[in-house]
Design goal:
The structure holds 2 protein chains of 2 kinds. By secondary structure, chain A is an all-beta fold. Chain A is built from no helices and 11 strands. In chain A, 35% of the residues are buried. By secondary structure, chain B is an all-beta fold. Classes of the chains: A mainly beta, B mainly beta. The A-B interface holds A 1, 4, 6, 32, 34, 42-46, 49, 57, 91, 93, 95, 97, 102-110, 112 and B 32, 34, 36, 41-46, 49, 89, 93, 95, 98-106.
Chain lengths: 116, 113
Amino acid sequence: GAVVSQHPSWVICKSGTSVKIECRSLDFQATTMFWYRQFPKQSLMLMATSNEGSKATYEQGVEKDKFLINHASLTLSTLTVTSAHPEDSSFYICSASPPRDFNEQFFGPGTRLTVL
Amino acid sequence: DQQVKQNSPSLSVQEGRISILNCDYTNSMFDYFLWYKKYPAEGPTFLISISSIKDKNEDGRFTVFLNKSAKHLSLHIVPSQPGDSAVYFCAALDTGTASKLTFGTGTRLQVTL
């Protein structure tokens, strides 16, 4: 199956700093990638849809200026958590759909963010 | 508003028996459904999917049933194995719009020896 990677897998940062998370589709080109957030024992919540070459589409309640998304190429999308605070601590997961199968998404392994 | 619900947060099944995980949805525009398996601190892994034009899809030990009139789907795992122990999420999407998955809340399956 298609492979999606994320980097880093785990990051700890101080409150007020910014953290960048990368999502890469390794063996296919993805015009659309998705960013999810999961709180402990809860469902995956879609944060935004990342479109290559254009602005991301954010879900209601997600702060655009807080969670900056850049989809610079067909294989890379980045999520930057700006001025992170402890409440931003969570598990962030990206996914991408192969170009011929929009109904299926392949997920990255996730990034655990802890803000002190 | 939780459009996809998994009302059983956990399920325990003996090895070799059948595991049945249930999922209900409210949005009648959903026409494609997927099941994912997830381990802690990992991304979800795709298991099986079903289109609304079908009522059953089978792949090895996994079978998904869809009852559109009841807005209900279920995942059957037969026979259950200890390696199946994980959290299972159902997800739905409206293929007429963007490919945005709406996830259920998950069911933790534990397969005991």
